[in-house]
Specification:
The chain is built from 4 helices and no strands. It is mainly alpha-helical and 69 residues long. It has one domain.
């Protein structure tokens, strides 16, 4: 398990949704392929929607650009 995975698990355990938006976005940025990136972006987007996070529009645009919405 890498450091990012450890941080994601810790944020889930703590219920830190703000951190989850950032961490899942970071995971998407580091993903090896578009399918993995969109998996992480979807998670980031869902948490962003729940929080009315300022990144929700940017996340949506990334998913739309990848043909996922």
């Amino acid at each position: 398990m890498n450091e990012l995975d450890t941080r994601l698990l810790a944020a889930h355990a703590q219920g830190d949704q703000w951190a989850l938006v950032a961490l899942y976005t970071q995971a998407a940025d580091q993903a090896a392929d578009i399918d993995a990136a969109c998996f992480y972006l979807t998670h980031a987007y869902v948490f962003a929607l729940e929080l009315n996070h300022p990144d929700q529009d940017a996340l949506f645009k990334r998913l739309r650009a990848a043909g996922r919405v």
